[in-house]
Amino acid sequence: MSQQQRIVCTGNEAFGLEVRRLLLEAFGYHARVLPDCAAASRAITQDRTDLVILDYSELTKWETECIRSLRAAHPAQRILLLAPAPYVEADVSALVDCVLMKGASPEEFREAIHACIGSNSGGRRMLTLASLFGALLGTARRLLKRHWNPLTSSSPPSTAQIVKQHASSLRSSAR
Q1: Which residues contact residue 124 at a Cβ distance below 8 angstroms, ignoring those fewer than 6 apart?
Q2: Which of 72, 81, 8, 63 is CA-nearest to residue 40?
Q3: Cα distance between residue 43 and residue 32, in whole Å
C-alpha cells in the first residue's frame, strides 16, 4: 500500500490556505498549513514533504526572496506556485517546479499537483498561460457540447447558465 503524499501549504491569505487544505484533504493528500516560508522550510527539514504549495496574493520582493531561500535550502523539493497573475517573472518561475494561476478549478489544481509530484523526472514543468488557455478552451468545448444541442436549440445557453451548472458539479466532485 502506498504512503499518503504530504503537502505543505504556505502563503499570506489564511482563508485561502484553509480552503486549499480542505481541498487537498478531499483529494486524499495529507495537507499541512504553515504561516510562513520559514516554517515551511523547517517542516521540510523535519518531515518528508512531497510538495510545497506557495499561495501569495501578490509576488512582491519579499515573497520572491522567500521562494529563493526555500529553493536554496531545499534544492530537490518540489514547489508549486499559485500565481496571483497570468505573468510570472522568468527568474521566479525558474525557482519552482510548477506555476498555476490562482482561481483555477479544482480539477486543474489536482492536475497541477500531479504534474509536480506525479513523475520522478526531476525536471521543472511550467503550466504556461498557453497551456492554461488550452485547458480552458477544452473545458469550454466540453461544456458547450454537454449543454447545447444545435439540432434542438438555435442558440447556445448563456455562459452564466453553463458556469452555474458546472460550478455545482465541481462542488459535488470535490467532496
Answers
A1: 94, 96, 97, 98
A2: 8
A3: 9
Single pTM value for the model: 0.67
Contacts of 161-169 with C-beta under 8 Å, sequence gap 24+, read none
The residue type of 107 is: E
Beta-carbon contacts of residue 110 (< 8 Å; ≥ 6 apart): 27
Alpha carbons 130 and 118: distance in angstroms, whole number: 21
Categorize the per-residue pLDDT at 120 as very low, low, confident or very high, splitting at 50, 70 and 90.
Answer: very low
Place of cell 505543505: 8
User: Lowest mean pLDDT: which of 85-94, 138-147, 165-174?
Assistant: 165-174
Q: How far apart are CA 159 and CA 44, in angstroms?
A: 43
